[in-house]
Structure formats: C-alpha cells, structure tokens
Write a structure and sequence with these properties.
It is a single chain. The chain is of the alpha+beta class and 412 residues long. The protein has four domains: 21-82; 83-160, PAS domain (Beta-Lactamase, 2-Layer Sandwich), CATH 3.30.450; 184-243, Helix Hairpins (Orthogonal Bundle); 246-412, Histidine kinase-like ATPase, C-terminal domain (Heat Shock Protein 90). The protein contains eleven helices and 15 strands. It has helices at 3-9, 20-82, 101-107, 116-123, 162-182, 184-203, 212-241, 252-269, 289-306, 337-340, 358-368; strands at residues 86-90, 96-99, 125-126, 132-134, 140-148, 153-160, 248-251, 273-276, 284-287, 312-319, 323-330, 372-381, 384-395, 401-402, 405-406. The strands form four sheets. A six-stranded antiparallel sheet has the order 2-1-6-5-4-3, with helices on both faces. Strands 8-10-11-13-12 form a five-stranded mixed sheet. Strands 7-9 form a two-stranded antiparallel sheet. A hairpin with a 5-residue loop joins strand 3 (125-126) and strand 4. Helix 6 packs antiparallel against helix 7 (212-241). The longest helix has 63 residues, at 20-82.
Length: 412
C-alpha cells in the first residue's frame, strides 16, 4: 500500500479546543487559592512575630526570675555563713546533707554524710534540760528540728546556750543572795530564840539543888533547842547554796516507793492515812535523789502536820508527753487565802517549830531540776475532796535507747 493511501485512510489529528468559560473559571479559582495562601502566609507571619515578642518577654521574665533567685541564693548563703546559730539539713534518710560554718564549728568540719542520730550519740550527751545537749568541752547546745515537707527531710537548728546557761545560773545565785540579804534580820531573830532558850536551860545545870529528874528534863530541852537551831542552820545553808547533787535516772515507782517508806510511818504514828499513787510508774526523770526525795518528804510532812487525826494525805504522780508532776494532796482545813501568797517566802511559817525554809527549798529544788512547785486550789477525786494540793513538776526523761546509745533527750 502506498503512502498516499495511508494518508487517506488515517483520521485527522486536530488539537482539542478549550471552552473559554471553563478557562475563565480555572483562572478565577487559581486567583482565589493564591489570595487565600497569601492571607494565610500573612497570618502566619503575624503569629510568628507575636510569638517572637511573647518568647522574648518570657525569656526576659525567666532571666529576671533566675537573677532574683541567684541573688536570693547568694543572700541566703551569706546569711547562713554569717549566722552564729548552726544549721544542718538532713535528707529523707536522716543523713547530714548540708551544714553551715557555725554547725561545722560546733560539730566538726566532716559532718556531711554522717547519720544524724549517730552523730548525736558520738559527740554529744543529753543535759538535764529539754532539747539541750553537752559536748566533751562542756559546750551546751540547744537543738531543735523542723520537718521539710517538700523533700521529706529535716532542718536542724543548733544554738550555743552555754553563756545563757551561765547567766541563768548567775541570776539564780544573785536572786538567792538578794533573798539572803533580805532575810538577815529575820535570821538573827530565828537564831536568837532557840539559842537563848538553850542557854537558859543550860544555865540551870549550875544550880546545886537540881534534882536528877529535873536535870534530865533540862538536858532534853537543851538538846531539843540545839537540834532546832541545827535544823535552821542546815536549811538556811541549803537554801543559800541553791544547788543540787549529781543526778541519776529514776522511775516514778522508785521515787514514790522511797518517799512512802519515809512518810508512811510518820503518818501512821499520828493516826493519818497516807496514800501513795503513781500513774505510768515506769516513766523516768533525771533527778538528784536526795534533794528531790527530801523536797517531797518536806511537802508530805507539812501536810501531815496540818491534817487532823483520821485525815488523809496522798502522793500522786501524773505523766504527760513532756512532764512528770508529783501531787501532794490532803483533806485538812486548807490554807487561808491571806497566807497563800507568803507560803514560799523564806522564814515565813505558821508552825512554832518550823524554820520557814521548807517550801522555799522545795521550790528551789524543783526549779534547779528545770521544773517548778506551786500551790493549787483543792479538787475532787473519786470518793474524796482534797482541800490543799501542792504540784511539783519536772521535765520527763526520754527512754528510747539503742544498745547503750541515747536516741533523744536522755543521758547515756
């Protein structure tokens, strides 16, 4: 077949013609899409600009806060370094995490990393005062702990109260000396009366006609007056000294038992019922046995002297988380309101044979132990009505130990 024939048989290949309306619509849609993209781009640029401004402001605020916190940390660091009080930070496990220079000066430069309880047991021993500890050089530290809620640790504050304790002791001594100065005139009278009586009785020994029976009676009176004089001088010296002997850890049961052994026979001899009670008898106190037992016996003997026959005198002991209180109660006639304000004055007494120093000494013993002695109005108890109550309170000793090491608040 010839080429001419092929050309004749093939269909014509003309390009398709596009409708002008469709072309116009396509251009319109393209323009709208371009406008939308342009507006979106402009919006994105505006948002980027706004975010850039806000980010710059946030960065500036963060920088300001960082600078403030850095300045605060610097001030706190300077403050901790300058504080005379020791500051120790403990972690959740009770390990020393941080310590300021004052704490290191008190406890040693290598305390970081130590267990706090082990550090206390190794370097300090508890004093007779609550929250106060003493090291080997007699440095007295007041130690208080506060929980850190944010991390579960604790912060420990250490205050050197050595000088404060010395000043308290000196102030107490000066107070006693002032009281001694005020009582000199009364003391001269108190001493003169029994001494004059003793001299008068002793002068009768020179009488040649003195019978043997009279001689014995006179001798008995002389001894009685001299014993009164000796008791007066002894009580005066105890009051003036104002100190107590060495201390030991005793339970309430031990103290009440010792006091009862001394007072029960005296009460029975006068037809008076004596009751010895003890709540939480195993609770313990750090005391000078002789001084505290003597103070309690003095209170009980005073009550026995005021209660009529068939009356009741009781020694009770109350315990709370921090204190032990010994209560001496009786159902006697009570103490007149006019006399109550003068009970603790040295040399004030309503008893012919009294020295007037017993209550003053008992209060001094209580205060030397870190407690106090006070008179309370009468109160009711099951089946009884007490008209008079003296309350002698002392700090309670902590009793938790691990082996021979003290956990808190107690001497080893």
């Amino acid at each position: 077949m010839s080429d001419h024939a092929l050309l004749i048989d093939s269909p014509s290949q003309e390009p398709a013609q596009m409708d002008p309306a469709d072309l116009a619509e396509a251009f319109r849609l393209f323009n709208e899409a371009s406008s939308e993209l342009s507006r979106a781009y402009d919006g994105l640029q505006a948002q980027v600009a706004q975010l850039t401004v806000e980010l710059a402001q946030a960065n500036g605020e963060l920088r300001r806060q960082y600078q403030e916190k850095a300045a605060l940390n610097e001030r706190l660091g300077t403050l901790l370094a300058a504080l005379p009080a020791g500051v120790v930070v403990l972690d959740r496990a009770g390990t020393v995490d941080q310590a300021n220079p004052a704490a290191m000066a008190m406890l040693g430069n290598d305390i970081v990393g130590w267990q706090w309880k082990e550090l206390l047991a190794t370097q300090l021993s508890a004093s007779d005062a609550t929250n106060e500890w003493i090291d080997a050089s007699d440095l007295r530290l007041e130690i208080r702990e506060t929980a850190l809620d944010s991390c579960g640790g604790r912060i420990v504050l250490l205050h050197d109260v050595t000088e404060a304790q010395r000043m308290r002791t000196l102030a107490a001594r000066n107070e006693r000396l002032a009281a001694m100065g005020e009582m000199v005139a009364g003391l001269a009278h108190q001493l003169r009366t029994p001494l004059s009586a003793a001299l008068l009785y002793a002068a009768n020994f020179a009488a040649p006609a003195l019978r043997a029976s009279d001689r014995e009676r006179v001798a008995s009176r002389v001894v009685e007056r001299l014993q009164h004089l000796e008791a007066l001088i002894r009580d005066m010296l105890v009051f003036a000294r104002g100190e107590i002997g060495s201390r030991e850890l005793m339970t309430i049961d031990q103290l009440v038992g010792e006091v009862s052994a001394n007072c029960d026979p005296i009460a029975r001899g006068k037809g008076i019922e004596f009751l010895a009670l003890a709540e939480s008898a195993n609770a313990a106190v750090w005391v000078s046995r002789t001084d505290l037992v003597g103070a309690l016996i003095n209170l009980i003997e005073n009550a026995i002297g005021e209660v009529p026959a068939c009356g009741i005198v009781a020694l009770d002991a109350e315990v709370d988380a921090t204190n032990v209180t010994f209560c001496v109660c009786d159902n006697g006639p009570g103490i007149a309101p006019a006399l109550q304000k003068r009970l603790f004055e040295p040399f004030f007494t309503t008893r012919a044979q009294g020295t007037g120093l017993g209550l003053a000494i008992a209060r001094g013993v209580a205060r030397a132990h870190g407690g106090d002695l006070e008179l309370r109005p009468g109160r009711d108890s099951p089946g009884r009505r007490w008209t008079t109550e003296f309350r002698l309170s002392l700090p309670r000793a902590a009793e938790a130990k691990t082996g021979n090491r003290v956990q808190s608040g107690e001497k080893p």
